[in-house]
Hints:
By secondary structure, the protein is an alpha/beta fold. It has eight helices and seven strands; from the N terminus they run H-H-H-E-E-E-H-E-H-E-H-E-H-E-H.
Amino acid sequence: MQNYSSKLLEEAVNEFTRLPGIGRRSALRLALHLLRQDGSRSDALGNAIIKLRSDIRYCTRCHNISDDEVCGICSDLKRDGSIICVVEDIRDVMAIENTGQFRGMYHVLGGIISPMDGIGPNDLSIESLLGRTETEEIREVIMALPATTEGDTTNYYLFKKLKDRVATISAISRGVAIGDELEFADEITLGKSILNRILYEKLTE
């Protein structure tokens, strides 16, 4: 057990360890690094975190993070509003955007169906996706969910809900390995998976 000469330092280390992937040694290095910096740097970090929690919003259309009511992607008139790429979370939007291969819209589910984790369809933004098919002229929905059992279950559920609403339902090709999360796929592989998407019905044959 680490002994700290300062209760304030110990509290800071404890808070850092709550972050994913940060152990106590890394937390201590971060805390000591902040102490060595000019006070304005620490203030800037603290203010950025406070503003992140208090001011950030979620797009009312696609559920992506945004500084405004509607995110920059949804408000971009140069993008193809007739194609929606359905993803698990915000990190997947960032991963696909980094490929530069997709110029349609997104819909962030906020998770995937996982009975083991107590996550069902009603816990995801599926109803708002269905609503978009009624209020927007959608010709294709691309399901870009993880190549896992839970991802496949969610894909199938969405397909049953969307097949009578949208002309084309496709899924990214399996260039992304089984069990992989989109955010960890390299940009070239992920970009090709989007471009070489296939009809979902062919995956179920």
